[in-house]
């Protein structure tokens, strides 16, 4: 390879020497000033220069970030602008996957930006064409790389944007990096509520920040959350890349109380009892947690394997493995559900506790009978509804085990705020 480089270098020198000799020869000839010698020397004549200038577009394109930029933010860091003209086409793509990025040209045709958040640690290419008032075209392009996950953070949030939830749903942010600058990060979260309820944050460790009011949300409240993390240092060398607003609506108030002693669940909506449902809670060996638990997931059918939550036999296999548990709704991260039960005798509901800690309601295999208690409760429930368990021999569930911060008194909750 080094020899090849020498050969190419020698050829370049020869071309340069040839150019010098040619120019020297032209200079010896002299000239009559009519441009003939310029044409012979390969230089544009005055008329040719004027023509070329006439073809240059007045449109001036600028691309942010600049070409070959690195560590570019994934929100609000990419834009195209043009002066003295309007944009014809803007094409942006992820180079490695050859995936086009959707974007929108502004109404006046002078600006463009991506429609959504970009991916981290990704190389992008922007190719732009614009035209001036005389139809002359200008072109510009840039290639850049977005910020690496190693030195940036985002917060994954619950609930989902534009969702309708129950009165117990907290705003929960789970960060992909440990946050040490907690006060700055917490202060960068703005929450507005139509009910006027004050909302306070509480840190569960270094990666989770939940917000809630002192009492359950008022029914029919609209909540808007703005995350202004872009460019914010969450920890030394770790910078936020989010600038996001999401909102949700709180629906009707539904609070269900499970009495593990009487084996009954009373479902109350907006202060009125809808139904009392017979249940079977956790057995004496595996009682159900006490406390207020928030429905965080819903599955019409799901598999439940005891091995995933520590219930194993001597061979290490799950004490139970049911592939099609119907109408299951999660109440804790550790595996507490309220769900349908088709495998037990019907007479256990309302009379005895037999489960490994879940709350069971009568159901059928296949989840196909809407008249079953479990099907009815599933259909009547929202994510964020509250299920309160009382009179169980177990302890109260920990506030960070699921979305269950309601099991912490208000003073303690406030003490967990970095502000």
UniProtKB/TrEMBL annotation:
UniProt xrefs under InterPro entries: Big_10, LD-transpeptidase, LD_TPept_cat_dom, Transpep_catalytic_dom
Stretch list, region Disordered: 34-58
Residue intervals of the L,D-TPase catalytic domain: 254-390
Residue positions of the active site: 339, 358
Record GO terms (molecular function): acyltransferase activity; peptidoglycan L,D-transpeptidase activity
GO biological process: cell wall organization; peptidoglycan-protein cross-linking; regulation of cell shape
Keyword Transmembrane helix carried by entry: no
Keywords: Acyltransferase, Cell membrane, Cell shape, Cell wall biogenesis/degradation, Lipoprotein, Membrane, Palmitate, Peptidoglycan synthesis, Signal, Transferase
Pathway: Cell wall biogenesis; peptidoglycan biosynthesis; Glycan biosynthesis
Compositionally skewed regions (Low complexity) per UniProt: 49-58
GO CC aspect terms: extracellular region
Spans through the membrane: none
PANTHER family noted in UniProt: L,D-TRANSPEPTIDASE, L,D-TRANSPEPTIDASE YCIB-RELATED
Protein name from the UniProt record: Lipoprotein-anchoring transpeptidase ErfK/SrfK
Record organism: Streptomyces harbinensis
Organism taxonomic ancestry: Bacteria, Bacillati, Actinomycetota, Actinomycetes, Kitasatosporales
